[in-house]
């Protein structure tokens, strides 16, 4: 495929993926007033086991001052745990709580249920096969 065709494909694919992503983000447990950044922090903590607030700021590309209120909100909701470092008492290790793990699992389950139902009801068997085959190239795009 030449560059012009790739550009046209990208122009058609980008808004569809963005809209699908936004729709998936809206599917969340009721009564959970979390921002996208707070949800992202929970996922980072799940991936890294524990992090310092400064590390979270770097990973989220936000200022260290912005992380504090977000972490306080997550702690108020019992979604994270804060523990003093064993090597440096000035540092606080932040990790995902059991409630935070349950929350992420619930969000994923709700999204999977919605997407699975949508695929089953709207897509023909041939379209479902196309979606299955698209997973590998889409994964390559993410890793680029």
Number of self-contained structural domains = 2
As residue ranges, the low-confidence spans are none
Shape: elongated
Amount of helix: over 70%
Gap from first CA to last CA: 18 Å
| Average pLDDT reading | 91
What is the count of helical runs?
6
**Structural category:** mainly alpha
N-to-C order of helices and strands: HHEHHEEHH
Number of strands: 3
The gyration radius over C-alpha positions equals 19 Å
Strand content: 5-15%
What's the arrangement of strands in the largest beta sheet?
A: 1-3-2
Major β-sheet profile: 3 strands, antiparallel
Which structural traits does this protein have?
Arc Repressor Mutant, subunit A; transcription; three-stranded antiparallel beta sheet; 144 residues; mainly alpha; 2 domains; DNA-binding transcription factor activity; DNA binding
What does this structure look like?
The protein is mainly alpha-helical. It is 71% helix and 8% strand. The protein has helices at residues 3-26, 36-48, 53-60, 64-76, 98-122, 125-143, and strands at residues 50-51, 80-84, 92-96. It has a three-stranded antiparallel sheet with strand order 1-3-2. Strand 2 and strand 3 form a beta hairpin. Helix 3 (53-60) crosses helix 4. The longest helix is centred in the C-terminal third of the chain and has 25 residues, at 98-122. The protein is elongated and about 55 Å long. The model has no long low-confidence stretch (mean pLDDT 91).
């Amino acid at each position: 495929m030449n560059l012009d065709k790739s550009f046209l494909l990208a122009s058609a694919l980008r808004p569809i993926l963005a809209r699908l992503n936004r729709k998936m983000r809206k599917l969340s447990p009721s009564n959970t007033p979390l921002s996208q950044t707070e949800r992202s922090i929970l996922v980072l903590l799940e991936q890294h086991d524990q992090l310092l607030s400064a590390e979270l700021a770097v990973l989220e590309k936000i200022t260290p001052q912005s992380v504090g209120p977000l972490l306080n909100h997550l702690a108020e909701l019992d979604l994270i745990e804060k523990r003093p470092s064993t090597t440096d008492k000035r540092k606080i290790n932040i990790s995902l709580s059991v409630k935070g793990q349950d929350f992420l699992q619930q969000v994923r389950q709700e999204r999977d249920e919605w997407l699975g139902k949508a695929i089953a009801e709207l897509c023909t068997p041939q379209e479902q096969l196309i979606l299955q085959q698209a997973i590998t190239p889409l994964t390559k795009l993410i890793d680029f």
